[in-house]
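[09:14] KT: can someone run the structure on this one? pasting the chain below
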Amino acid sequence: MRRRFFAFLLTILLLPAFPVMAEDGHLVMAIAPSQFSQGETAYVYFTVPQAATANLEVLDGSGQVCATLLKDAQVHEGANELPWDGSVEGNMLPAGDYVLRLTMGDRQEEISVTLTAGSGSVAASASLGATLEDVDAPPEESGETTETEESGEAATLITPAYRSTHTPSPKHENCYWCTPMDIRNEAAVWAMLTAPVTVLKGENQKQQEVLRAEPSEDAQGIGVVTCVSQSVHVLETLDNGWSLVETYSSSFYDSKVKAWNLFVTGYVRTNRLTEKRPNQEFGIVIDKLTQELYLFKNGRLFSKLLVSTGLFNEKQPYNETRSGEFLLVSKVGEFRSDNMFASMAMRFNSGDLLHEVPHVKNADGTKNYKNTEFKLGTRASHGCIRVQRLKNDEGVNMSWIWNNVPLGTKMVIWEDFAGRQTAIPDPATMLYYNPDGGTSYHLSAECRGVKEEYLPLPGSFTYGELNDSQYKELKACWYCVPPRRIEEIEEINTLHLTQSPGDIPQHLRQDN
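[09:31] RB: done, structure tokens below
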């Protein structure tokens, strides 16, 4: 598989991006994140109806133009992307609230952005001197990676179809399979979460279909797809009534084809395929790399929670949570597994459910989470996705999802392929604690996990100081989900330099 490398911040001005959609000739613009620190890189996305020249200006709080990011720049028809670190021609703008104004002819579009105090790095500013003619073509294959360089550190963006050998057609532009697994790219992730999905028709939500190695019912089975809820990536529609698709195999313990979470390419009957439009208000990303749930609402990353996905073993290789693109299709409610109970379960893949972290029942009928809750943020389940029960700062937990996120919402699961890395947080990120006996560090001074009498938390420090002696023993709060310690992140990243933890070893796979 081809891999391309871009000197991202030093040479790229604009790239064809994952678009926010323009309708009726209007300009559409977004920035992700909408609040970032000086020296960090945000991404300005805009979609234009035709190739033309454009101007992009920065307005201060009084509405006056204080900087120009693009001056009579030639932009692509459709989607464009501009990395920006808050600096212009080597000079960092002061922290504050700004408006970005895009102008093309007599049309304008504005978005708000907040720049907070940071390290003041200007590594990205050289990109503003590039021209569109200097830009390389974007990756052509859905499985390619894009390696970027920021302040000497490489970040690899990998799509869910990383192992695919097929080139997607333009109609797949916003698809799950072709969108890099990068939660920082808010606009691209939202476009993917609201794009239509192709699923197999079925009589019920547990029905599964075998993928065939050749377009024939007699051909070897190479994978399994769950009908109604699991999407497939259609690569080719043949004249003989069959279609070539790729997906992650949803083999379970009793499946005839033992392809546990294997990325497979095979054939299904074309008349079994149907397209569905997911809910347009919410979307969910489950990332096996970070073991976190990212909840999107109306185009924005709204909240995040800790989760536990499946942990396979020699005897139960089918415990690995199947990756892919799914729809939440039914509310199952509480169910029992051995001596544990899981509440508010929502079905997304046959026997795999999204549910609250399990509990056992005490003699007095109360719920006891002590044997499962501490495992959140790591692999621990039998294939289902366990979700945080403690309310975070937005008031979100599994109960909130159960009550507010409708069926038909798209939920995608990102595989932690070798080569994926999680970013080191900005050292200037503020953290909070109670210096009078507090044992946890928090992302918010008003964390819901702290007794009201101690709020707001009086102690604060930066992420860069987290390993200083006075903070070294503090534990990450289970409510507000502050960033992991740098050594934990480095351990995750080191593992993923050479390993894909979701890969089931070949000796655990059985031929059907």
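[09:33] KT: thanks! The CA atoms of residues 108 and 396 lie 36 Å apart.
[09:34] RB: yep, looked fine to me
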